[in-house]
Design a protein that fits this description.
One of its GO terms (cellular component) is membrane. This protein is mainly α and 319 residues long. The protein has 15 helices and six strands.
Length: 319
């Protein structure tokens, strides 16, 4: 090799920044999390399918706690104690027009909150109070837990927290001594479960490619429907006690948060935005490994917040 050729090679090496203290090094490649997922991890491989399944599974418990009152707060059937002209259970006569000692609930009084606390006639408005309090709690919980997920805890930890609180408040609801305590516990349960739907949706769509986000976003409603359809399977064996229904539904999110959430990955996008680049890269490497791929060693993540800030600074300086 001639001296001219050697000099040319050295110039090319220096211009490309490929030589460092006489050793060959690869040029650093900077990509956003979206680009890494699209180009190297895979838009929707085995790792994304498992992540989406484990994350959206929590919607089952969200549906159960939201719609459980269909069974626990239902008005049970009634019958006449002594058939008479004024009491015919088969007619359209109202219970409020009958004497208290002429009729009775069919089955145990503990089959529902309406039967146990006589939430009928002049007390009928109290029967709707727990459901109203539940959705008020959900409203406040969505604001607070959404802020926690974005600013402090992240998506995964918020899901774990929400499931644990949902399990605890649902279990404590089963010990309500009256409708007022019951309404308050439904408020706390609504506050607790509000983080599930928000974080599950975001955590699912943040690990897949752009073209799959619509489909993944709709998968949560599928699991919500499964949760609703599973309620009769829980309520029928516990039809003699509305309290047992709450105890069963409380055990499911507890088991989920203990046994399944450890296998869920935190959102690499959220980690990147919070400046935790190394953790985000580890998550991406694990996702790529499950898909049978490997990330290039010279690959680094661009923080979109820093990119936007530098762009704005350049524009302001040019002005």
């Amino acid at each position: 090799m001639t001296e001219v050729q050697v000099e040319d090679m050295e110039v090319v090496q220096v211009e490309n920044g490929a030589v460092e203290e006489g050793n060959w090094t690869e040029t650093k490649v900077e990509l956003t999390v979206n680009e890494i997922i699209e180009q190297h991890v895979g838009s929707f491989g085995i790792s994304e399918i498992l992540q989406v399944f484990l994350a959206t599974l929590a919607w089952v418990f969200d549906a159960q706690n939201t719609l459980v009152t269909i069974f626990t707060d239902a008005q049970p059937a009634w019958k006449c104690k002594v058939p008479s002209f004024s009491c015919f259970s088969s007619s359209n006569i109202s219970l409020c027009d009958l004497e208290p000692d002429t009729w009775d609930w069919i089955g145990d009084h503990k089959t529902s909150t309406v039967a146990e606390w006589d939430l009928i006639c002049s007390h009928k408005f109290r029967a709707g109070l727990p459901s109203s309090m539940f959705f008020i709690g959900s409203l406040f919980g969505s604001v607070i837990q959404g802020q926690l997920a974005d600013a402090y805890l992240g998506r995964k930890k918020t899901i774990v927290l929400s499931c644990l609180l949902t399990a605890m408040t649902s279990f404590l609801t089963s010990f309500s001594p009256n409708v007022w305590v019951y309404a308050f516990m439904r408020f706390t349960n609504g506050f607790a479960r509000s983080g599930i739907g928000i974080c599950c949706l975001v955590l699912s769509i943040e690990v897949v490619g752009r073209k799959w986000r619509d489909q993944v976003g709709n998968s949560g409603f599928l699991f919500f429907t499964i949760g609703f359809l599973s309620l009769p399977l829980i309520a029928y064996p516990s039809k003699h006690s509305w309290r047992n229904i709450y105890r069963i539904t409380s055990s499911l999110p507890l088991a989920y948060s203990i046994f399944l959430t450890p296998f869920i990955f935190e959102s690499p996008r959220w980690l990147t935005i919070k400046g935790r680049i190394d953790e985000a890269m580890k998550v991406l490497k694990k996702l790529a490994k499950l898909n049978g791929r490997r990330l290039p060693k010279n690959l680094t993540i661009i923080n979109p917040i820093h990119t936007i800030s530098s762009t704005n600074s350049t524009k302001n300086s040019s002005l």
